[in-house]
Design brief:
Radius of gyration: 20 Å
Number of strands: 7
Number of helices: 8
Strand content: 15-25%
Helix content: 40-55%
Shape: globular
Distance between the termini: 31 Å
Structural class: alpha/beta
Amino acid sequence: MLGSIDCMHWEWKNCPMSSQGQYKGHENRPTIILEAVASYDLWCWHAFFGMPGSHNDINVLHRSPLFDNLAEGRAPEVNYSINGHDYKMGYLLADGIYPHWATLVKTISSPMWNKQKYFATAQEAARKDVERFFGVLQARFPIIRQPGRIWDRETLALIMRACVIMHNMIVEDERVLDPDERFPDVGENVQPSHGTPTRTLAEFIEAHKQIRDKPTHFQLKEDLIEHLWNRHPDLYPMEPAS
């Protein structure tokens, strides 16, 4: 699990009158959207800012560069096995509005059995990391807690980017890390990959299909349900026999 994803709306007080229809969404006031991925320690791994507030999370996701490196073959390799099935892409925790992609794991809206209830509780608890990130970001920087008073969107984007960078600097400074601590069976530290894409057009299209593969999404969720239940089988009474 690479983190949790969600969107935050920043009100744009001085939005030009000609653009207000585009930037007004369900909040009935002009806003600009920040899409972010955060981990349990509130480190922001991804920030995409600038989409008009009339968009929802799905529209933002389709325009976001979140999975570009993965589709272009520049992302670090990920290989793991859950419940006897092998996977080659990490996943993010998301709420119910997001699509059924192989790289997203959503909760169960109406869990029926104890296994499903435990999975839903664990997923929703971990998914709050990105909500905590939004709360801490606004608490640290009142300029984004208040409505934006700048007239142009480019300056607002610079302000938001600067706040995210300074937030990560604070998180990094407050971390307590053991430089000798390593996970077992791990090789060299992975560095961000840059440069030209390493895949052909056909490989790029195939990678996009794998990212958006719905059967893999449901298989991964079922494997995670069984994996969590096998780790903590004593939390609930036995399930009724089917």
